[in-house]
Amino acid sequence: MDYYLQQLVNGICLGGMYALMSVGYSLVYSIMNFSNFAHGGVIMVGAYVGFFALTALKVPFWIAFLLCGLGSGLLAIIIERLVYSPLRKRHAPSLYFIISAMGASIFLENFVIATIDGTPRNYPTLFSNNITIGSVSLGLDSLLMIIVSAVSLLVLIFIIQKTKIGLAIRACSYNEKAGTLMGINASMVIFTVFLMGGVLAGFAGMLYGMRFIVKPTIGQVTNKSFVAAVFGGLGSLPGAILGSLLLGIMEIFVASINSNLRDLFVYALLILVLIFKPSGLMGKVVEDKA
Amino acid sequence: MSKDIIIKHHDPDVMLSLWHVTKRFGGLTAVGDVSFRIKKGEIYALIGPNGAGKTTIFNLITGVYALSEGRIIFNDGVVLGQGEHIIKDDVRETEVRPEHKKPYDIMSRGIARTFQNIRLFKSETVFNNVLTACHSGADYNIFQTLWRFKAGPKWLSKYAHQEEALRQKTEELLKIMGIWEYRDMIAVNLPYGQQRKLEIARALATDPKLLLLDEPAAGMNPEETMALMSLIREIRDRFDLTVLIIEHHMDLVMNVSDRIFVLNFGKPLAEGTPEEIQKNPEVIEAYLGKEEDADGHA
Amino acid sequence: MSWYYIEGILIQSCYTLLIVLGLSILTGYTGMFSFGHAGFVCIGAYVSVICTMALGLPFWLALLIAGLTSMALGTALGKITLGLKGDYFCIATLGVGEAIRLIFNNLNISINVGGTPFVLDGAKGIASIPLKTTFPVALVIVVVFLTATALLMNSKHGRNMLAVREDELAAQMSGINTFRSKMLAMSMSCLFAGIAGGMMAHYFGYLQPKMFLMTKSTEYTIMVIFGGMGSITGSVLGTVLLCALPELLRAVGDWRLVFYGLAVIIIMIVRPKGLMGGKELRLGVLFRKIAGLFSGKNNPPPDQKPPAPEEVSA
């Protein structure tokens, strides 16, 4: 029993990190209707910002953490301005967006390999203490991961649900054209969405680096968070969070049975979801507009 | 499940009938309880202010959207809608389960349309745009594309014969629409008015019986609009068509159409001949008056 | 450079071209994006090797079975996802591409075939595969498929695919069964990938799942985009160029892919139709151009267009 409880906590920990990543995919999909595969690169850069802030600048943890969010948020906006915005102005088909996103992700990954190098790096140990609650032992870093994920996601939900720009985002996700007609500044909405997705990606990158490792090909992990977004229902924010948590927990349990199968399980789950419920747990089915 | 009853559907003179058609998006009713019948050979116009639900009706007829309520009944007995119902006419009583058909399925039953915001195959030539729409006239399979000569047994030389027929038909259509000289231009580079014509040519290529035109004169100057008017009549007579047209140019609607249906905020407002509509006080208030002030058409 | 070295590049170009050709049908013509094409190449490679090594079938039959297996899988995937709106097809290719590789990563087979052992050992893969893919064989296969593709694309089936890419709704409204067009594109694309996988396995002589990472899929797509979407000659140029370039640009090393990524973005913004701009390079036109260079101004310009009328504002 204790063993399972321990695994559950580990799963929530992993799922929380996926959630930080997957909301970025989901937010962009809900507004612009394409899967932003450059998001993986943004997360990876976030992880590197955190690494160098801690090792080269030797700043305290909290500052490094904020720098990650800032760096990734900025990068996400730059990508939107330079890569997507020209396509948006031309009303290019979504195929072009996906290809450009792929180009951006190749660029980021290999730019890091070319300028830094491809070797995996370890974050300096920040928190080595363990907290034991009942029979569950929890590393301080794991506890931090859960708290950071929960707080960031709550702030995000607050912004989406309670602020004016959040209302605009919700309106645009329902129908961008109608939203624009109602006097909503679509550029502003897109800017905000990329900024928020980017900042959370930076946080996620840092958490990932602390827990695992920093390397240019983190993108393969972020693909899993994309699977989580599909699992929860692409374009749905609560769906992305729920999907991430469930995926994290299931992945940990599969790994505890046979660690070789954890990746295969994730992609098999993706295929099963697409076969049986492509709209995911909480996704909406959208009708094509003529 | 409750069964709706439609009485006297089977009227051979009716091309298309809408029966209590309703479409809701979330909480918004885009089209509410619209019914009309279009007779064979008629030019029927659908008018109304922006956002009145005209294009939504086109999307319902062509199967882009699924109906929320009501029925759309085609001349050949195909019925779109939700739930079961009984069709009754003088001769027989049939129980029909309506289906949500895929758009191409509906189109291949003799309906063609143009779009409000022109949707051509942008980066292809004018010729290929129309040629692509002619494809129902060819049934060669992928292996038959490998033999390009007219010589040989019929099963082998299908490609050459059928392709030639398609090209002839395309040429004919482009000439009728007066855009033959642009045939090698990339569609998106065409002047606006010619793009509209190309879209009509592409629609005609599918051999329709019913043609849906969504604001065909939008963006045209008065002379072009006049020319378009006579062109619409000409193709109606030439191809034995029934035409359903959405239009903002009042001159065009009043001159070209046999009957007019007025929509206002998704709800039916009036139906009648151009003379009747012009005299209808409700219509004048809701639509014509404002429109006259707004952009000067009258 | 020795002939051996050049031949290697040529064979690689041949089977890569076959993959890119298939991807060109899918992405360039039909406008669908695949993240997992390497997975279909992977299936073809493994199936063909199992056919030749474990079952003792002849090479050509093994290639055929490899292609058909990959095609069956692709068709099934298309059947499930192509009816859905949105990015679901693209997402599914991501899942399937990775899943195939991971399955072979975890698969262990060890049997004895007539005295010689056949070992498929997970991540270590398969070794000492008979080298059957010679340059003439590869060339013949690729020329046959190239011709067939060119003929098919220049027919109603190819034009339907282009219409789907240009505007799916308008294509449906023109009576085109867009689902069927997409299915055809997907099936053909996977058939090509499977056969190419078989050629690849019997050229290298060994197989490992890590040869089929997702980056490989994106590299194939880059070749299609470089050459130009909707152009077969463009795909040929793109493939040959990008297959030879890394060999020539060894010095640039890590920066190569940085440039590729950047180039993809710039192409999408500036010239989304790629190198060939959706046009085909025709031998006739080429000859006329070359002849024009020698004979001066007597030749008419090869592509005559009607005088473009002035743009009428809306």
Can you walk through the features of this model?
The complex is a heterotrimer of chains A (290), B (298) and C (314). Chain A has 290 residues and is mainly alpha-helical. Chain A has eleven helices and two strands. Chain A has a domain at 13-115 and 140-219. Chain A has a two-stranded antiparallel ribbon with strand order 1-2. The relative contact order of chain A is 0.20. By secondary structure, chain B is an alpha/beta fold. In chain B, the strands form three sheets. A six-stranded mixed sheet of chain B has the order 9-10-11-4-12-13, sandwiched between helices. Chain B starts with a strand and ends with a helix. In chain C, helix 1 packs parallel to helix 5 (135-153), helix 2 (37-54) packs across helix 8 (178-204) and helix 9 crosses helix 10 (232-248). Chain C is mainly alpha-helical and 314 residues long. Chains A and C meet through helix 3, helix 4, helix 9 and helix 11 of A and helix 4, helix 9 and helix 11 of C.
What's the helix and strand layout?
The complex is a heterotrimer of chains A (290), B (298) and C (314).
Chain A: H1 2-32, H2 39-55, H3 61-89, H4 94-115, E1 130-133, E2 136-139, H5 140-162, H6 164-174, H7 176-181, H8 186-211, H9 219-232, H10 237-257, H11 262-276
Chain B: E1 4-7, E2 14-25, E3 28-39, E4 43-47, H1 54-61, E5 69-74, E6 79-81, E7 85-88, E8 93-96, H2 103-107, E9 111-113, H3 126-133, H4 158-176, H5 192-204, E10 210-214, H6 222-239, E11 242-246, H7 250-256, E12 259-264, E13 267-272, H8 274-279, H9 281-295
Parallel strand pairs in B: 1-7, 4-11, 4-12, 9-10, 10-11
Antiparallel strand pairs in B: 2-3, 2-5, 5-6, 7-8, 12-13
Helix pairs in contact in B: 3-5
Chain C: H1 3-29, H2 37-54, H3 59-81, H4 88-105, E1 108-113, E2 116-121, H5 135-153, H6 156-166, H7 168-173, H8 178-204, H9 214-227, H10 232-248, H11 255-270, H12 283-295
Antiparallel strand pairs in C: 1-2
Helix pairs in contact in C: 1-5, 1-6, 1-8, 1-9, 1-10, 2-3, 2-4, 2-8, 3-8, 6-8, 9-10
What are the defining features of this structure?
heterotrimer; B: 298 residues; alpha/beta; Rossmann fold; six-stranded mixed beta sheet; four-stranded antiparallel beta sheet; 9 helices; globular; disordered C terminus; C: 314 residues; mainly alpha; two-stranded antiparallel ribbon; 12 helices; 2 strands
